[in-house]
Structures are given as C-alpha cells and as structure tokens.
Design goal:
- There is one protein chain.
- By secondary structure, this protein is mainly α.
- Helix content is 65%, strand content 6%.
- Helix 6 (80-101) packs across helix 7, helix 7 (103-124) packs across helix 8 and helix 9 runs antiparallel to helix 10 (203-234).
- A 3-stranded antiparallel sheet has the order 1-2-3.
- The chain has one domain (2-234): Rhomboid-like (Rhomboid-like fold, Up-down Bundle).
Length: 237
C-alpha cells in the first residue's frame, strides 16, 4: 500500500517537516560522496546492537561515541528507495502533526521517536552485528501521533505497481492500523529467525516508534479536546 495524500490541509507552512526532509536528503548526498569509506562510517554512525549489549565490545567506545548513532542513524539511508519512502511518508503525515504540536515539539517528537525506536531495536536484536540506519523509527513516531490526532481523516492510496490507478480512499485509522499490524507480525516472526537473516528491516524499531508517538501525543489530544469544550461553552454559537 502506498499512501498518496490525506484530506486534512495544513493550516500553516510545514517548515520543520521540509527542513527534516532536506536534512535527510543532504545527508544521503553526503553518503553518496563518501561511498568508498561508507562501510567504516556506518560502524561509527549506525545502530549496531552488539555495541551496546556485549560488554567487551561496549568497553571499546566512549559514552559520546555510543550516543552519536542514536541520532546520526536516523538521518542515514540505504538507497534512494529507502530515502524516498521515508520522506514521502513524513511529508504526508508530518505537516498535520506539526500543525498540532508546533515546530519545536514536533522536532522533539521526531528525534525522541527515533531514539526510542533505536532502543527497542537494540532490545529485540541484542545479538545482531548488522548496522541499522534510516528515519523509519522517527517517521513511525510521527505516524503514531497522526493516528491519535486524526483518526477520522482519510488517506488516498494505491497498490504498486499500478501507479495510474485505481485509487482507494480509506480512513487513516484503517491505513495506519493495518500498517502497524503488518509491522507487528513481521517483527514477531523475526524473533524466531537468526539476526543475519531478517533482511535488515528493523520491524521492532517501527513498532517502538509508532507506539512511542501515539503515547506521547495522547496528552496533546486531551488538551485539544479540553480546549474545544471550553470554546464551545464560551462561544456556543
């Protein structure tokens, strides 16, 4: 399923969403320029679970060196398809979440969501030595927030490779709920497979990011509901 657009227009220019997309694109261009050295760089900038779970490996790194991948990894991508898929999803759902949270809180959600997703990935892939990169966990946090904030929105989608149609309009809660279920079942199956055979997809990072975003945005949803009640009582017309 490929989402094309939602039916909620932005109330203001999504500056932070655009800046995040631009940052990811620029970092990817840097990756292309550093291609001859990329394998070594990924060992320093990507999330490699055994760096955190195996004591004799963990001791080789300082605390700043261990913290850096939690942030650098969410701006790195493994190819154009990986980059475009994440950035397209961020563009569709991010503008409305930015509307609700404001730019500062929205950026914090993106970064904290990526951090939480990395922690979940490490916890569920403790013996993996595979470098993990991508904004998927951070974007999943934005999707989780959208799921809580706009459950009654609609998403226009298409089934690849039929890019000329037909198009389908489904409730956002159905689209995002089905996406989450797919991640959950894929992640559950991955627990019974050797780490080097999972295909490099961080299923549990997606799950962790989504749940984190949904939980963290709950307070904002409740504040918005209370504000609507106060406004309706003050201005009943």
């Amino acid at each position: 399923m490929l989402p094309l657009k939602d039916d909620i227009p932005s109330r203001r220019f999504p500056a932070m969403t655009i800046l995040l997309i631009l940052a990811n694109v620029l970092v990817f261009l840097w990756e292309l320029a550093m291609a001859p050295y990329l394998d070594k760089l990924l060992l320093d900038l990507a999330i490699v679970p055994v760096r955190y779970t195996v004591p004799r490996i963990r001791e080789l790194f300082t605390l700043p060196e261990q913290m850096l991948p939690f942030f650098s990894s969410m701006f790195l991508h493994g190819g154009w398809t990986h980059l475009i898929g994440n950035m397209w999803t961020l563009w569709i759902f991010g503008d409305n979440v930015e509307d609700e949270l404001g730019r500062g809180k929205y950026l914090l959600l993106y970064l904290a969501g990526g951090f939480a997703a990395a922690l979940v990935h490490i916890a569920t892939n403790a013996t993996s030595a595979l470098p993990t990169i991508g904004a998927s966990g951070a974007v999943a946090a934005i999707m989780g927030a959208y799921f809580r904030m706009h459950p009654h929105a609609n998403v226009t989608m298409i089934f690849p490779p039929f890019f000329l149609g037909p198009f389908f309009v489904v409730p956002a809660i159905v689209f995002l709920g089905w996406w989450f279920i797919l991640q959950f079942f894929s992640g559950t199956l991955s627990l019974f497979v050797q780490p080097d055979r999972v295909g490099g997809i961080a299923w549990w990072a997606h799950i962790g990011g989504f749940v984190f975003g949904a939980i963290l945005s709950t307070a904002q949803v409740k504040r918005y509901a209370r504000r609507r009640v106060v406004e309706s009582e003050t201005f009943p017309w």
